[in-house]
Amino acid sequence: MRRSTVAVVVLMFGLAVTGQVIIGPGTATAARIVRIDDKSPTRSAVFIDSVAMGRTIQVDVLHPADSAARPSYYLLDGLDPGVGQSTWTNATDAEPFFADRRVNVVLPVGGQASYYTDWVQEDPRLGRYQWETFLTSELPPLIDAAFHGNGVNGIGGLSMGGMAAFTLAVRHPELYRAVAGYSACPDLGLASSAIMFSVANRGGNPMNMWGAPGNAEWAAHDPALLADRLRGKTIYLSTGTGLPGRHELEIKPQLPENVAFGGPIEAGVNACVLSFDQRLRGIGIAASIDHSVTGTHSWSYWQDTLHRSWPTLAPALGV
User: Can you list the domains of the chain with their CATH numbers?
Assistant: First the structure.
């Protein structure tokens, strides 16, 4: 079922009255909602004409059915995001888990190997990536207007998306009260080789993102170097050790666990998370580190940690 176009017109009028969305240095123009498809009373697919990205971007929103004000939790996907929907709704129970919680869960669709950042060059294979501008400037006022957001935000993600969540949090500390990473490495110095390889492995040119590792652009996006900007925020990080755990024994034909790759990847994430925690403690910033003695880099564990993270994140958002 599609919402009335009248609602979208009213929304756009409200945005015009309150001001334009700033999408880049010296540029003032408005992104706009093209349409909203209601999948259920508590799930909607939102299609946004993004000026920054130069195309229409789909964002799924899990939301309460009523019109009372609530915060928003932006939840990012991994290196290979879902097609047509976020993998969070395809591979986990995120939709029923949040069904009775008073929060908008905002799930961008797409962005393969993007690291949800603004690339310095358009990529011949991956296209025009201006995800940071979209997520931090264009999207929040539209979500708040269409889904009764109260201006309180948190951000999280798994793997690539978790790294990006910390990058966005240190670059826009005023925007988020809480940040979460599920099997994510928020230290670009430790992860640079893996980042470059992952982009190239998906057909992109990693030099088009921030240029060569170690330059000023990388430093300007590195949560480890900018960790002091996390002060005062609620921080959650989860990691396993890479050792097989209970989920490797399950039969899941849709998204089976991959011990051959998921084990070593998670072992690397584990070392990074422990190092990042030391970095935070060294400057007097507390974080909730959810460390499991087993667990690979796979969706069943991210579902578990999504559940375990919520009692930490919810109070920061006022839920």
Answer: 5-317 (3.40.50.1820)
